[in-house]
């Protein structure tokens, strides 16, 4: 689960480099300062978690509440951006956003600490994962012709690779606004995970695309990057990986519980008002 959450946020950072997405984020002004990004992207984290753990057979489950919230917020942001003349959030953009949640899991699983099963088990898991996100995409009104999740893993991986290539080009030529917003998002998430280093995480995101992060890393960022690489490596080691994944699953659960019930660090540094989390 931790690997899936990490890859999702790396993907969300990557798609910010898309000019249309960047313009909308610049316009909404909700991704510029940590006290705002903490609340906004903590909610994003919790919504991702809810999608994975909620019961789809229960019509009153948080999964459907999360889908409604995502749809409502995207619609509001799109309308505001269109009225401002910067362009809205279109179905194509929603399809690209799908990449954030499935892309690295399908095309670079080892880089995020996944892929230690047999080939048959991996393909079976991939098919189930793709089906899940295909349904989510359908619920978010992404047309089948634009849905990144196809009917088989091979076709979906091929599409993900094409999207990754496009993102690589944008990331290589990313404007200053990209780094400003990405830094603000990661600064906000630091109040959830104090081990998070923005430059190390951006380096990790760039590595997933096979390109160099074009900022100089300090000693702590380099150490932090090596720590995250080590964790991903250990997840792939037989037997050891199971223990590491179990440990970080517990860490994730505790982190999410604390951020909902007792976000003490955010309270102290941002104030209770700026630390309020409201999912629904």
Properties at a glance:
mainly alpha, 280 residues, globular
**Structure classification:** mainly alpha
The proportion of strand residues reads under 5%
**Rg measurement, Å:** 18 Å
Tell me the number of helical segments per DSSP (H or I, 4 or more residues long).
12
Q: Give the ordered list of helices and strands.
A: HHHHHHHHHHHH
Q: Ends: how far apart?
A: 23 Å
* Oligomeric state as shown: single chain
Main beta-sheet annotation? none
Helix content: over 70%
Name the shape in a single word: globular
Give the total of beta strands: 0
pLDDT < 50 stretches = none
Average pLDDT score: 89
Organism: Cardiocondyla obscurior
Protein name: ER-bound oxygenase mpaB/mpaB'/Rubber oxygenase catalytic domain-containing protein
Keywords: Membrane, Signal, Transmembrane, Transmembrane helix
Signal peptide: 1-17
Task: Summarize it.
The protein has 12 helices and no strands. The protein is mostly helical and 280 residues long.
Structure, explained:
The chain is mostly helical and 280 residues long. It is 70% helix and 0% strand. It has helices spanning 2-16, 19-28, 34-53, 62-83, 91-107, 119-139, 153-172, 176-189, 198-207, 219-236, 240-261, 264-270. Helix 1 (2-16) packs across helix 5, helix 5 (91-107) runs antiparallel to helix 6 and helix 5 (91-107) packs across helix 7 (153-172). The protein is globular, with a radius of gyration of 18 Å.
């Amino acid at each position: 689960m931790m690997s899936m959450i990490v890859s999702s946020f790396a993907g969300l950072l990557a798609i910010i480099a898309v000019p249309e997405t960047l313009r909308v984020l610049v316009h909404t002004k909700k991704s510029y300062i940590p006290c705002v990004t903490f609340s906004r992207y903590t909610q994003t984290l919790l919504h991702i978690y809810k999608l994975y753990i909620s019961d789809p057979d229960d019509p009153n489950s948080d999964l459907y509440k999360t889908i409604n919230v995502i749809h409502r917020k995207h619609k509001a942001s799109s309308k505001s951006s269109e009225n401002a003349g910067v362009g809205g959030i279109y179905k194509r953009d929603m399809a690209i956003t799908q990449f954030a949640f499935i892309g690295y899991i399908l095309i670079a699983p080892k880089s995020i600490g996944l892929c230690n099963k047999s080939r048959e088990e991996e393909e079976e898991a991939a098919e189930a994962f793709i089906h899940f996100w295909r349904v989510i995409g359908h619920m978010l009104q992404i047309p089948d012709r634009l849905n990144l999740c196809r009917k088989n893993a091979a076709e979906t991986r091929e599409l993900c690779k094409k999207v990754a290539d496009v993102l690589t080009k944008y990331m290589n030529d990313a404007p200053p606004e990209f780094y400003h917003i990405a830094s603000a998002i990661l600064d906000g998430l630091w109040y959830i995970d104090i081990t998070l280093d923005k430059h190390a995480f951006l380096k990790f995101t760039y590595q997933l695309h096979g390109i160099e992060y074009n900022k100089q890393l300090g000693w702590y960022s380099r150490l932090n990057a090596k720590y995250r690489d080590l964790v991903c490596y250990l997840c792939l080691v037989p037997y050891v990986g199971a223990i590491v994944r179990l440990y970080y699953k517990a860490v994730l659960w505790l982190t999410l519980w604390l951020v909902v019930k007792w976000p003490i660090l955010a309270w102290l540094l941002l104030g209770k008002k700026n630390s309020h989390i409201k999912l629904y």
